[in-house]
Amino acid sequence: MKAQDIVIRPIITEKSMTGVANKKYTFEVCQDANKIEIAKAVEELFGVKVQKVNTLNVRGKFRRQGRYEGYTRAWKKAVVTLTEGSKSIEFFESMV
C-alpha cells in the first residue's frame, strides 16, 4: 500500500487539537493498516519522526431518519506521537 492509501484524512476536532501542543496528531487510517505501516506513512508524507502510534477502531453508530434506519460506517483512528526533536506538522499548525 502507498502512504496516501494508509492515511486517509486528518481528524480536526477540539479534542484532537488539544493534543497538537504535545505533538500528538490524529488521523483516520485504513482499517487494514497496522501501527508500523501507519508510522512509516506519516513519516513519508510529512517528513517527521514518529515516536509511537496508538490505534482504535471506531464502530458505526445507530442512526434513524424517519422510517429509515441503519448504522454509520465503522473506521479506524490513529493518534501519532512525534519525537521531541521532530518538527511539527504544518497542516495542523494553521488550524490552531
TrEMBL record:
Part of the 50S ribosomal subunit. Contacts protein L29, and trigger factor when it is bound to the ribosome. GO terms for molecular function: rRNA binding; structural constituent of ribosome. Gene3D superfamilies: 3.30.70.330. GO terms for cellular component: ribonucleoprotein complex; ribosome. One of the early assembly proteins it binds 23S rRNA. One of the proteins that surrounds the polypeptide exit tunnel on the outside of the ribosome. Forms the main docking site for trigger factor binding to the ribosome. Signal peptide: none annotated. PANTHER family: 60S RIBOSOMAL PROTEIN L23A (PTHR11620). This is Large ribosomal subunit protein uL23. It comes from Hominenteromicrobium mulieris. The keyword Ribosomal protein applies. Belongs to the universal ribosomal protein uL23 family. One of its GO terms (biological process) is translation. Keywords: Ribonucleoprotein, Ribosomal protein, RNA-binding, rRNA-binding.
